[in-house]
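Hi D.,

Good news: the full-assembly prediction came through. Inputs first.
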Amino acid sequence: MARLSVGLVWAVVALAAGAASAADDAAARAMRLYETHRYEEAARTLQADVPALDPAGRAPAYLTLGMIYLENAELHRELHQAGLTAQLDYLKKLAAVRGADGSRFVSLYLGRTLLEIGSSGDATKYLERFSTQTGVEPRYKATAEAELGLCHFLRKDASKARALWAALDTADPDVQVALAAVYSRAGLKERDPVAMADAALRKVGASPSPRMLGSLFTVYARAGLTDKGLGLIRQADLKAASYTEVLGQTKTINFYDLSVLGDLAALYLQAGQLYLEKAAADPKLKPTADYYLGVAYADAGNVELSLQATDAFLSVASAPAQYRNRARARHAAGRYLQRRHAEALATWEELAQGKPADADLLAEIILGCVRVRAECGRIAGRAELAAEAGDAKKTRALNIALGKYHLSKKDYRRAVMYLEAGRDKSNKNRIEANDPVMLVSLAEAYYRRRQFSEALEIYFEMSKHFPVVRGLQEALQGIYSMEHNSAGDVKIF
Amino acid sequence: MKKITVVALSILGILIGAPLVSHAGPKNDGRPDGGTLGYGEYGRPSTLDPITSNEMVSLRITELVFNGLVGIDEKQEIVPELAERWEVSPDGRTYTFALRKDVMWHPKEGEESRPFTADDVLFTYSIMMHPKTITPLKVRYEFIEKVEKLGDHSVQFTLKRPILNALAKFSFKVIPKHGPSNPLYLTREDPFVQHPIGTGPYILKAITTDREIVLVANENYFKGRPHISRFISKPFADQNIMTQALMFNAIDMVVLVNPRDIPELQGDKRFILQPYNALSYAFFGYNVRNPLLADKRVRKAFTYAVNRQEMLSSFFNGQGTIISGPFAPGSWAYNLDVQPLPFDPQKAIELLKEAGFTPGPDGVMQKDGKKLALSLKVPIEKESEAVKRVVLAFQNYLKNVGTTIKVEFKEWQAWKESVFLEHDFDVIFASWVFDDSADISSLFHSAEIGSWKNNFGGYSNPEVDGLIVESKLTLDHEKRRTINRKLHAIIADEAPYTFLWALTNYSGYHNKLRRVAIHPYKFFSFADEWFIPASDQK
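Then the structure:
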């Protein structure tokens, strides 16, 4: 994500806060947490303070909240992507074990994961396999059939889908909310998935199961019920397994539903957008809010609104040059998505040539290329030279951007090399010192290079602040245990 | 001979090595030969052979000097080494290896080089398993029923039962039949353990009066002459000056950078910091033979009594992770549900009282008239400033809960004898380093109690023994994972150790070294490919 430096925001916040010292204090506290990437804590702290603030002093708080949620959304989006890759690899390996030792539930979770990545055809095969097994508890059979219906629906066989859905007994809240989530994903608002989810939630009281939570997040995220979704997130045990299959005294398998990560990302992005729009209502903060709204709308897939917001920022004559250039780089990415490829590439080329030593600008361009999947080999080559020549601290963001560029090109060796160059080695895995989004990319690159323990170590530290990464940890541990080649050696030191 | 079926990779996931072409002579890969690499080490190893050694310093040396039948490449795949191909029977019990015919042993002093043959493989296995051989390897190879010579360049191993990752276990280093002076078993008195010969890329040339170990390139290495002409292992009694030696060009590489020195190296463009995730952790280990330490409440009390986070933050700049049990956090076996015990001295005192201790007039806990006074033995090689602080802090923390700790620093070999042979200690401070297997069986199985065995503290628990055996017998990965999670929980609760932390591992080296790939455990596995540009060769 293209970020505005904390410094610029602070200047604006300080200017706007003026007489509103309570707002200043609240935003300052949250900003300190934000700077150390403790987003949930930052948001919770500041949101609790907002009602007590003078209405005039709320704008800086809104801006800060917008930034926090935007970052948290990006992190969870990255975790979602990395998680699906690992989860799919793990479940496929697990599904290969058939017979008495095999898992029955692997078909359900493999089907779900395939559905999540858009492979509804392959998902159908596994969901059918699960639902036709003998001895499966009706609740799980029904949830599988709800999702099987979604597969059919997405494959343009609505009648088959409706027949499956109609046969489900929604007296069980688990089934009811699973069906609500399926309706949400199918876009069937007339079925009123929110009412169904609310009804299911009322039945179970204050502690829905992890399985239900996953479906509730889906429903509320897709309905735009941001506060409701965020409220649930704060109550939930996000490290709990969706299902634990017991296959004897010494064999249990924990299954996680990683669509939760995608729903969390969506809820955080909605919250970010909401607060930034509120901040933009304040004329003094509007330019900064517009800058971030450009990012938020782009992340939400709304190119038009993103370009409008960025244009609004660029129209402010007093905006600092370095941020104008970065906004222009992002604007070009929007143009690229509008199929104005030549215009976008020319803008990036002009910016890169005009400021060949501006590592942050080059980073913004490279990240833009990665985001819109543009071919920017020439600029990347020049950026690599700039990264090599520059001071390590000043080129940190550029090294990270180049790492992501090579990750997107599946050149994992170089991805590791650049991401490592951008990592604060004195605080290797600490999210206080390293952007967790970078750490997720690095873990992904290590995973692809079969350096499992490096990836696991990153997630181990990250899980202390983001318990939802447990699903990734379990998947990586599972793959590692199956793939490692070693002799069983141990030495004293 | 039993009928052997070649099993395809896709069926059993077992690699079949391709016939190999001899590369003796230069590698001819366009990269220059020459130059010397001096690297800083944490002391001088007590033995240099792959059988008797159980320490990291010698593991790194043996990686340069010896080969296994198979190796593990950078992609974690099994690759041919001394065996050029292999076949696995369909029942997974018979492994037949065709050996390379172009491998020569390093020349023994005053003798011609001899060829490597099947006899060497049989000899290695038999000497490794001999009851009088002092080695931690036996427990790893008890799954082998027999080994037979099928020809001068063909050997067959029959397993007692199929096991997971069997092929990787044939990466054990092969030693020459004409190496040790005693043809039956190997002890630490045999001259071979100090002056070994192998088949590897480097030949042990000399051990200087400064205790530096000089290795020279093996011109006849079967994979081609390694690029760098000389490796010199330089021991540092004080870790604190190792990084300074690198900064002032006295050495070219530090195998493990002191966490405190990372910022200094990170800011200097002459050096590269390369992470490698050795699965390792530090611990205080208890001798449960001592009646004072036999009660798990006492050992748990000590864990509650020490502020591990404070020690990690203060003495290692926080560069590591507090752990809860016998696996490293980067391992596949770590139980993520077991949390480290908190620092709680009051809870520690309660536990000691529950265990029957009462404070004496001098404040020291006592039971049946015996004071809770213990010795803590630390190898002098670990006498860095940070380690000194850790043991002194431990002493203070335990003093606060009425326990007296007497700290003794001992020379490495003497320390090992006290701990592994004589079991003459109460508490030790050390670290274990694991390969990817995360195998803790030699550490906690009761059969591993004995001279020079890894269960030095004498810990014994039938449930743990049973789970370890079940873990070894299963062919089910998920079952093995579950068992290891259980083991983690039980051992964390029983506290034969106070598990401390896993530290950040970085190697630091001069940027003149090129194509450096580091094996996370063995370190030098790929060192024959490293090179120094001609312009940078000394």
